[in-house]
């Protein structure tokens, strides 16, 4: 799927990578209007983190660091 103009992206971070976070990641990753900046969970073996690794999406076990890294460029944080 081709991405649309970068200025039109909604840039988001997902906090929580259990079953719900994984489901969000699966759905949102296929939307060309969304750029997923990363996903965070304290458990690096959670389902969402494992999927993020497969999709080459940045991940972290520290959501504060992930948010701070993108604080000027994130539109939505889903917790």
What does this protein structure show overall?
With 79 residues, the chain is α/β, with parallel strands linked by helices. Helix content is 34%, strand content 23%. The chain is built from 3 helices and 4 strands. It has a 4-stranded parallel beta sheet with strand order 3-2-1-4. Strand 2, helix 2 (47-55) and strand 3 form a beta-alpha-beta unit. Helix 1 runs parallel beside helix 2. The longest helix has 11 residues, at 19-29. It is globular.
**Subunit arrangement of the protein:** single chain
Number of strands: 4
Identify the overall geometry.
globular
Q: What average pLDDT do the residues reach?
A: 91
- Most strands sheet: 4 strands, parallel
Low-confidence stretches: none
Run of helices and strands: EHEHEHE
Task: Provide the β-strand percentage band.
Answer: 15-25%
Q: Helical stretch count?
A: 3
Structural class by SSE content: alpha/beta
Strand order of the largest sheet: 3-2-1-4
Span between termini: 26 Å
Helix residue percentage: 25-40%
Radius of gyration computed on alpha carbons? 12 Å
Task: Give the gist of this structure.
The chain is α/β, with parallel strands linked by helices.
Give the key terms.
alpha/beta, 3 helices, 4-stranded parallel sheet, 4 strands, 79 residues
SSE layout and pairing:
Elements: E1 10-15, H1 19-29, E2 34-40, H2 47-55, E3 59-60, H3 63-69, E4 76-78
Parallel strand pairs: 1-2, 1-4, 2-3
